[in-house]
Amino acid sequence: MVNLFSVQIENDEFHKKIGGGLPKGTFGLIIGESGSGKSVVCQRMTYGLLKNDVSVSYVSSQLTTVDFIKQMASLGYGVEKFIISGKLKFFPVYPLISEVKKRERYIEKLISGRHIFESNVIVIDSLSALVKFDINPDSAIDLVSFIKRVVATGKAVVATLVPGEIDESSFLELESAATFVAECSLRKFGADIKNTMTIKKYNLAQMQYQKQIAFRVEPKIGLVVEIAAVA
């Protein structure tokens, strides 16, 4: 579809579960605790976008460039050629800050980083870790206004949030402004514990989607959607 950024790859049917891909104009939030699968979902989306010739900017608050390349390779999502070609722009936050220095004024730095927002899709993992020292309800409104201007040009922005990492008012401001909200969690299925993504809001959906998606992560294979229904 013209109004959709496809994330389809041969390995899985994740694209079908989320309605084919990311609609243009999406401001998406993926919410969840550490280890719930937020980053893997972002990395799977990123690889699918790149395979469909969609340019991506990936901002990481945890990984260096080398770590990111290794992480993607461990999932079977090789991205070296996309980085070399410029189709994927990776922006690591970790090497730019001291371990003992707070991450201050990162909302201002993010908004002023125009080159980050030149790509078709911008992924920020994690937004809450990036801005937690300087976000408040007023700055959250400024950030939302900026993101809304970005996606109004036909781009998409997807960010991850950890509950409790930013104040509740700022969290609600971001969540209410988002057009796509999904929550990742760990759930027990029999003797196994699986990752589950629950889609709570999807205002711009172009196709039918599944509200709850159970998945696991396999080395060299990546995100694998579970066939069994989520109870």
TrEMBL record:
Keywords: ATP-binding, Cell projection, Cilium, Flagellum, Nucleotide-binding. Residues 13-218 form the KaiC-like domain. SUPFAM superfamilies: P-loop containing nucleoside triphosphate hydrolases. It holds the Pfam family ATPase. One of its GO terms (molecular function) is ATP binding. It comes from the Archaea. PANTHER family: FLAGELLA-RELATED PROTEIN H-RELATED (PTHR43637:SF3), UPF0273 PROTEIN TM_0370 (PTHR43637). This is Flagellar accessory protein FlaH. It comes from Ferroglobus placidus (strain DSM 10642 / AEDII12DO).
